[in-house]
Amino acid sequence: MLSDLEIAGSINPKKIDEIAALLGLSSDDLEHYGEYKAKLKLTSLEAIKKKPMGKLVLVSAITPTPAGEGKTTVSIGLAMALNKIGKLTSVALREPSLGPVFGMKGGAAGGGYAQVLPMEEINLHFTGDMHAITAANNMLSALINNYIYQGNELQIDPRRVTWKRVLDVNDRMLRDVVIGLGGKSQGIPMEEGFDITPASEIMAILCLSNDLAELKRKIGEITIGYNYQGVPVYVKDLGYEGAITALLKEAIKPNLVQTTEGTPAFVHGGPFANIAQGANSIIATKTALKLSEYVVTEAGFGFDLGAEKFFDIVCPIGGFCTNATVLVATIRALKLHGGAKKKALSIPDLEALKAGLPNLEKHLENTTKFGMKSIVAINKFATDSEEELQEVANFVKSKGFDVSIVDFHGKGGEGGLELAEKVSAMIESDSCKLNNLYDRESSVKDKIFKIAHEIYGAEAVDYQPAAQSALRTIKKYGYENLPICIAKTQKSLSDNPKLLGRPKDFLVTVRDILISSGAGFLVPITGEIMRMPGLPKNPSAENMNIDEDGNISGLF
């Protein structure tokens, strides 16, 4: 069997101007990054604003497991299949982070015959967006530290600077550090810490901004810490929003690439769904919607994380509505949720499969809470037995949902034509209706409980001292009406990664609540979730190599 990288290398991609032409764009609308990648000019984005919007399909999934769900592969494959049935379709995806690429996952650009190309470049440095966001974030840190060192007119309390540095690698050693050592001329000693770049508030802001002006305004609203009187200090108080935005002038432009079958793909922005909103940029999705009949996008991790945030945060800010949802499930993942061992997943196990179905059931229930019409895509693996596939299909139908078995990995767009037809029929049969889970005017505690109880299935929420203190600050300075962006493990519906399946009667523990006033949401930190991941014992980097001709191997 060919690896993803070998399959990607076997494809003869079209020049990016040909892909742009499919969407009615010319070479003049693009800023080229070689032959197969481009950014869209801001002037071109302005020119298409008056075009009508296409239909949006959101791909989500059951609770992720090490067995894999293939959500990105299904998103790419579905877009290709929709094109095959005559619907001009684009796919809009997040950019991969170097942390997971070199850590646990390997490549993050789809798989098999449903990938976005050029695969190696998208997975590595791409067009430099991640580096620009890292630089902008850390420039702000340097400016804050320098401001305090050079006189500190606003009386910023060095002990209460909340802005952290970031790096796009998994590095547990940087979670908590001390900076400014070495004497008076080296700065002021301070406790500091690093998050991974996808957790940066600047990443969230870039992906939630409709244009450059909004990006600058939101950066100005970032809370960087508090003064000695406990009053919040904003970037706009320091006057640095213009400089930080200047570093993002190119990064805000959406990237255009293609799939293995020449379907237009917008790959832009990369916030994680377990620590941020988990969706590609609003500007890329809206651009795709203006240029296509259909757009397929994905929400990170399971429906409880990415999709909930997509509906409650991304759609309202972006001003668009989701027309249909596809929920991805695999036999392998369901068997893991049912208690099967990872080494035994290739062996048919109907009992373990049945025991894991409640996880799928809960995610299906969650789709109805948003008024969404949904269909289940069973992402087929070669080891799945026909009996197992039919067991899941029958279960889904018994719950009142439609279902389709797909093999985009092995067959490309041809592997899901039935799903494409069903999705198209679903979209055309009804107008877009989207319900928000909670009222933004509700108290912060009520909103958190609504998500934890309705979506996760928790019985109660416990607030540790730091979270209780944050609630008082939130109320005092008028942040109560902001939406909620919970940071939680992706490995369970609960905040405990060891509780698989559909946990019952559990408690969600909120350790702290971060105020992302620039992005416009609050971030409750639950369980043991970390905003800077660590590397596993055997990271994917061990399998990667490059030869003297520049050919990369081992990248998934």
Q: What does this 3D model show about the protein?
A:
The protein contains 20 helices and 24 strands. β20, α20 and β21 form a beta-alpha-beta unit. α4 packs across α18. The model has no long low-confidence stretch (mean pLDDT 95). The protein has 556 residues and is of the alpha/beta class.
Short note summarizing the structure:
With 556 residues, the protein is α/β, with parallel strands linked by helices.
CATH class of the largest domain: Alpha Beta
Please work out how many helical segments DSSP would assign: 20
Beta-strand content estimate? 15-25%
Give the class from helix and strand content and strand pairing. Answer: alpha/beta
Low-confidence stretches: none
Number of domains: 3
The radius of gyration computed from the alpha-carbon positions, rounded to a whole number of angstroms, is 23 Å
CATH architecture of the largest domain: 3-Layer(aba) Sandwich
Q: What's the total number of strands?
A: 24
Amino- and carboxy-terminal Cα gap? 13 Å
> Helical amount among residues, as a percent range?
25-40%
In CATH, the homologous superfamily of the largest domain goes by the name P-loop containing nucleotide triphosphate hydrolases
CATH topology (fold) name of the largest domain: Rossmann fold
Q: What can be said about the biggest beta sheet?
A: 12 strands, mixed
How would you sum up the global shape? globular
Rounded average pLDDT: 95
